[in-house]
Amino acid sequence: MNISASPLPTVTVKEASERPPGAPLVDVREDDEWNDGHAPDAVSVPMSRISLDDIPEGRPVYCICRSGNRSGKVVEALVNAGVEAVNVEGGMLAWTDAGLPVTH
After folding, report:
1. What's the average model confidence in pLDDT over 8-15?
2. Of the N and C termini of the chain, which has fewer Cβ atoms inside 10 Å?
3. In what order do the strands lie in the sheet with 61-64?
4. How does the average pLDDT of the chain come out, rounded?
5. DSSP classification of residue 54
6. pLDDT at 47
7. Are 72 and 87 in contact (CB under 8 A)?
């Protein structure tokens, strides 16, 4: 995994789609966005009601949203709480642009 030198740990959508076994993909978008389409193995944990108790086991935690903005904020909070987490750069927009699978 190549984590960029940006202020937050960041990976590409391709890297996220090939993440190690047991590393969860947490989609922090709201329910209506989730229902419009999401990565097949993602877990929905909306940012508006997220808590550390909602974060699945397995590390690092890969966080994704629509464009990478909200997930970046979640990653920042998780990292500050001592959780190994990475932001999926470009979010679901980049995921679909890359032709990666989406389920509804």
Report:
1. 96
2. C
3. 10-11, 85-88, 61-64, 25-27, 43-44
4. 93
5. G
6. 96
7. yes
